[in-house]
Amino acid sequence: MQGVHEGEQHRSVSQLTTYAQCSMRYYLARVAGHRELPAGWTIQGLAVHSAVESWEKSWRKMPLDEVIEVFESSWEAEESAARQREPDLSLWLRGGRTTTERDLESRRETGIEQVRRYMEYVQDGPLEVVPLPRSGDPAVEVPFTVRIGGVAVKGVIDQIVRDKRTGALMIRDIKTGNEPVWPLQLAVYRLAIREMFGADVRWGDYYLCKKGESTPPVDLDTIAPGFIEHLFRNLDRGIREGVFLPNPGGCFTCGVKMSCPVYNNVTQNTLL
Predict the structure, then answer these.
(1) Which of 51, 92, 168, 182 could be a cystine partner for 100, CB 3.0 to 4.6 Å?
(2) Helices assigned H by DSSP within 184-244
(3) What's the whole-number mean pLDDT along residues 211-232?
(4) 75, containing H or E segment
(5) Looking at the predicted structure, is the pLDDT value of residue 272 above 50?
(6) CB-based contacts of 264-269 (< 8 A; 24+ apart in sequence)
(7) In this structure, are strands 140-148 and 203-208 parallel, antiparallel, or unpaired?
(8) Which three-class secondary structure state does DSSP give residue 207?
(9) Residue 60 backbone class (left: φ over 0; alpha: ψ -120 to 50; beta: rest)
């Protein structure tokens, strides 16, 4: 596979999903550079990932109280940064009919409980994080930059794990939000692992923090590599050619909706 050059513009799964859902949102956030409104669910997700990462990188030896300290430290840093970006808490995105303060308090407590449940769930489970080739470090938060369909694609793999019963490798992604409707992210990670390490990992799953358990294994053969290449080529072409179309409907969780002419016209019942 052709190498990726330093400084080359890259794409990612996050860019692909955002562009596919609403390319106007992609434009406002990533091209025009409009500031995104903070959200408690983002802080929660980052803090949970940080705590899980630290525990797994200790080969699951870090005590619970220290793991919770990692969560708290991450939460404090992320919330502080978010408050600096947007001091007016009334503008923050939040779930349901509640204040931002209450939303943050609830999510902080929920996040700590999600970390506890994760540790309990995987401690005696059949899957364990594997050591990376050469370094021997735990395969947790593994960065990659590879070329897919001629496009430089960058990302971070949450975990590469092994089933202790069969020896089979799997890809695991931690989700504090909803379960993805299709495993595109895992399939992209499969291609990255194949390119970096020469291993073909056919199966993956999501650990769902809301449920405190993982999904059944997903067969990644259901998404052909050629189709993934097609998606990234079209993503790259659309961005380079300036094709950005609005798709109103998912505006509730959109961090740049206040900068969106379509959202503002819809909410004001006026025409563009």
Answers:
(1) 92
(2) 184-197, 225-240
(3) 97
(4) helix 64-85
(5) no
(6) none
(7) unpaired
(8) strand
(9) left
